[in-house]
Design goal:
42% of the residues lie in helices and 14% in strands. It has 17 helices and 12 strands.
Length: 422
């Protein structure tokens, strides 16, 4: 089968419109289209189902979930005891983000003022004043290996056994724990209480969310087909492959700052693949840069500046024809307009939402087209080009705000009978 080529049909656009709120608008239409085009024609409905069952957790939602779990722990806290939150992995890791988010909540600050809670990475050296419950924190527990390793290396059980202040029951708090990690940690550390939302392997025969969609077998086949070619990590100079996510967790989760590697790699891998939620920082940066080069990014700014240009135009200035390409030149037109208004570079960057480096790239394009000089000022041709182009913009109409344009053109058809009955 040929790779899928996305057509902007009403049906296809509608499919993406349904996906966007499920992803909490964490991705944009162009990125979703590029991701869908990784697949073959007959796999698109399956690909869309992956997104419909995907769980994206923003920072605000993550903070709320963490506080829910902390509230559960606090309810079971013995009277006159305290809680010590412990980011347990080596710095820097996501559980440092977790510590920060919790520390900024009203609940934490209120308990802190009463001496009922604190945060410390070094629980071994902490100055305990009364009975304390150790609560180890993270955002996501996949296989459970990370905590199990920390538990053994830091000899947490030995520390608890030798301390008069530490409660024998310890907690692991997270936003989500996969059933695989939950089962392992319960077996290995019976005294551990895990406070987190449980998620099952996505392709489980008994608990898969896909039972109400394409079915776990079809979904798994597509994940394996592409995922088996994607390198998850390198260990000892060897490429490691986990087509169903690290440890075979089959997770479908991402946070604002990226998905865990337990999430199936067709979501986040950039190994000859366009990711929808990049995991590697360079891929996230690259995707952010591409967005700021896109037409969609500039349309809002141009609308604000009343530069509603929807068609390609040839502008004739002193016998020379300048082509305005509505797919390529939004950024340059926006900058030319702001330069003509005498805005300084810092303000231009602030208005558009770009960096100085990105502005210099646009300058370079303007110089190449001879609309800017080497001092980044409008040339005579540039001023004339902008003047003519704004005249075109004023003369164009695109769904004007006249009442007639918002009136219903035809009546809704209402059937007179249904299944032969009036």
């Amino acid at each position: 089968m040929a790779k899928y080529k996305f057509d902007l049909t009403p049906e296809n656009i509608r499919k993406i419109e349904y996906v966007l709120p499920k992803l909490k608008y964490s991705s944009y239409i162009g990125n979703i289209i590029k991701w869908l085009e990784n697949f073959e024609d007959d796999e698109i409905e399956i690909a869309i189902d992956f997104l419909m069952f995907f769980e994206f957790i923003s920072l605000d939602e993550l903070q709320n979930r963490l506080i829910e779990q902390l509230s559960n722990v606090n309810k079971s806290r013995p009277e006159n005891s305290s809680i010590l939150l412990v980011p347990f992995t080596k710095y820097p890791k996501s559980n440092d983000i977790i510590a920060y988010l919790i520390s900024k909540t009203i609940m934490f600050q209120d308990m802190k003022s009463k001496g009922k809670i604190d945060i410390s990475r070094n629980f071994e050296q902490f100055d305990y004043q009364n009975t304390t419950i150790l609560v180890f924190i993270d955002d996501f527990i996949g296989t459970g290996d990370s905590f199990l390793t920390a538990y053994k290396e830091r000899q947490i059980d030995v520390f608890i056994g030798n301390s008069d202040y530490i409660d024998s029951k310890i907690y692991l708090l997270a936003a989500i724990v996969m059933n695989k990690g939950l089962e392992l940690l319960k077996f290995k550390i019976p005294e551990l209480v895990i406070s987190a939302e449980v998620r099952y392997n996505s392709f489980s025969r008994t608990n898969s969310p896909f039972v109400i969609a394409q079915g776990p077998s079809k979904m798994k086949a597509v994940a394996l087909k592409y995922g088996q070619k994607m390198v998850i990590l390198r260990r000892g100079g060897q490429d490691i492959y986990y087509p169903l996510g690290y440890g075979g967790c089959e997770a479908l989760v991402s946070f604002d700052y990226g998905p865990p590697n337990n999430t199936i790699p067709i979501i986040w891998s950039s190994d000859k693949w366009h990711p929808i939620f990049p995991r590697v920082s360079k891929d996230k940066i690259s995707q952010a840069k591409e967005l700021k080069k896109s037409v969609a990014f500039y349309i809002g700014v141009m609308k604000m500046l009343k530069l509603d240009l929807y068609t390609d135009e040839n502008i004739l200035i002193n016998g020379n024809s300048y082509k305005y390409d509505s797919r390529m030149d939004h950024s340059l037109i926006t900058v030319l307009y702001l330069l003509a208004k005498k805005y300084n570079e810092i303000l231009i960057c602030q208005i558009i939402g770009i960096t100085m480096t990105e502005l210099k790239t646009i300058y370079g394009y303007g110089i190449k087209r001879k609309l800017l000089d080497t001092k980044n000022q409008l040339t005579f041709a540039g001023a004339g080009f902008l003047s003519e182009l704004t005249k075109v913009a004023r003369n164009q109409t695109f769904r004007s705000k006249k009442r007639a344009n918002f009136e219903i053109n035809s009546l809704i058809y209402i059937p007179q009978s249904f299944k032969g009955q009036v």
